[in-house]
Amino acid sequence: MFGFRIARVQARLSAQIAQLLRDHQRLSVMQWRVLFMLDALGKTTPAEIVRETGLDKGQLSRTIRDMTERGLLEAVPNTDDMRGQVIDFSERGRALFQKVRPLIYDRQDRLLSVMSEEERKTFIRVLDLLEDEMNRIDAEEN
Fold first, then answer.
1. pLDDT, average across residues 112-132
2. In this structure, are residues 82 and 17 in contact, taking their beta carbons and an 8 Å threshold?
3. What CATH code is carried by the domain that includes residue 57?
4. What proportion of the chain, given as a percentage, has pLDDT over 90?
5. How far apart are CA 8 and CA 21, in angstroms?
6. Which among 15, 31, 105, 141 is least buried, having the fewest CB atoms inside 10 angstroms?
7. Other CB atoms within 10 Å distance of the CB of residue 128
C-alpha cells in the first residue's frame, strides 16, 4: 500500500509543478529537471544527468534538442567522447531558471510547512533509507 501512496503523491506533485511551469513559463517538468540539474552540476553531459536522476535517455535527448532549439541551452561536442555532447545554460536559459526557481521553491516550502523540522528530517531520512534499499535490491537482481 505504501508504494501506491508514494506514487500518488509523486503524480500529484508532478501535476502541480507541471501546471505551475506551464502557467508561468511554458516549460515542461522534464525541461525544469534539466535546468535544475545544470544548476546543480554545472556544465555536464546528458549521460551524467541520466546517472544522477534516472531519467529516460531518449526523452532526455529529445528535451535537450528542443531546449537547444529554443535557445535555453548550449550544446557542444564532448572532447572526451566525440559521440556525445556537453550542455550548459545559455544566457536565456539561466535567466529563465532564475525566474522559475522561486516559484518551485515556494511550492516546496508550502508543502514542507505542514511538517515540523524534526518531521522533515525524519521524512528525508526515510526516503534515503528506501532509496538505499532499492539500490541494494537492484544490485542483487542485476
1. 95
2. no
3. 1.10.10.10
4. 85
5. 20
6. 141
7. 10
Q: What is the DSSP string of 4-49?
A: HHHHHHHHHHHHHHHHHHHHHH---HHHHHHHHHHHHH-SB-HHHH
What are the tens digits of pLDDT across the range 19-47?
Answer: 999 887 789 999 999 999 999 999 999 99
To the nearest whole number, what is the mean pLDDT of the chain? 92
In the chain, the number of structural domains is 1
| pTM of this structure | 0.83
Half-sphere exposure (Cβ direction) of 22: Cα atoms closer than 13 Å: 6
| Res 93: pLDDT | 95
Backbone angles phi, psi at 19, to 5 degrees: -65, -45
Q: Specify which residues 77 forms β-bridges with.
A: 85
Instruction: List the domain range (segments joined by +) for residue 49.
Output: 2-141
Structural contact between residues 83 and 61, judged by C-beta atoms closer than 8 angstroms: no
Residue 86 DSSP class? E
Q: How far apart (Å, rounded) are the C-alpha atoms in residues 59 and 43? A: 19
To the nearest 10 degrees (0 to 180), the angle between helices 57-69 and 29-41 is 90
SS3 of 80, please? coil
pLDDT at 39: 96
